[in-house]
Amino acid sequence: MNALAWLTRRRPALPADQQQRCAALPAPRPADDTPLGQQRLVVLDLETSGLDLRRDQVLSIGAVVIDNGAIQLGEQFECTLHRDGHTVSASVLIHGLAPSAIAAGIEPAEALLAFMEFLGDSPLLAFHAGFDQRMLARALKDTLNLRLRHPFYDVAEMAPMLCPQAEIRNGGLDDWTAHFGLQVGQRHHASADALVTAELALILFSRARKQQADSLKALEQRLKSWRQRLQGHSL
């Protein structure tokens, strides 16, 4: 395929029902002064075919809801996406999603649209959120021609800011779950990782309240100041 053909190619049009569902998706809710205990948040974890933000694909989505200050176990999302031609790669050794599971997965447009309907207008939480945010944004753009506008909050960034006494600067999810003694059912499984991230987030929200940061808006302001201090120390 030459460069001109690549630039001018069009993605297949979505069926009318999926177009209608896309149009009906609510606008994301901006950060405000709503207390954390009254805020609905969706905690997300993605499993992907690799770590290349330009080429790798989302293979599975796991998400749980925090609402009214608790994890709502009746509100969970989990699905594996169908990917044509998916082959065994090094990532299979991490997430365990075999080609047979991917072949039996849900059609990507339907899976992503169902997740966005589950998400609604809620903000998103993730551990190392930058990766999940970029992978999800590209998947939505390529598959549904949707722009991801929901704010993401990084639990991996909140944790050292709110718990400096832990002295864990660049820790992973395993480091923080071990620090707080959380039980992890199965690592590198989207739903299980989302659940333990949600448990960690609730601990951090409790610390945030004690530090007079009891809203997403207050946390945003605290994170901005914290990043500036870190940048100043690194100069």
Task: Write a brief structural summary.
Pfam families: RNase_T. The protein is α/β, with parallel strands linked by helices.
Tally of alpha and pi helices? 10
Helix percent band = 40-55%
User: What is the count of structural domains?
Assistant: 1
> How many strand units?
5
Shape: globular
Series of secondary-structure elements, N-terminal to C-terminal: HHEEEHHHEHEHHHH
CATH topology: Nucleotidyltransferase, domain 5
GO molecular function, one term: nucleic acid binding
GO biological process, one term: DNA metabolic process
Pfam families: RNase_T
Protein name: DNA polymerase-3 subunit epsilon
How would you portray this structure in words?
- Pfam families: RNase_T.
- It comes from Phytopseudomonas argentinensis.
- One of its GO terms (molecular function) is 3'-5' exonuclease activity.
- With 235 residues, this protein is α/β, with parallel strands linked by helices.
- It is built from ten helices and five strands; from the N terminus they run H-H-E-E-E-H-H-H-E-H-E-H-H-H-H.
- Helix 5 (108-119) crosses helix 6 and helix 7 packs parallel to helix 9.
- It has a single domain (32-233), classed as Ribonuclease H-like superfamily/Ribonuclease H (Nucleotidyltransferase, domain 5, 2-Layer Sandwich), CATH 3.30.420.10.
- Strands 3-2-1-4-5 form a five-stranded mixed β-sheet, sandwiched between helices.
- Helix 6 (129-144) links the parallel strand 4 and strand 5 (152-154).
- Residues 1-9 have low confidence and may be disordered.
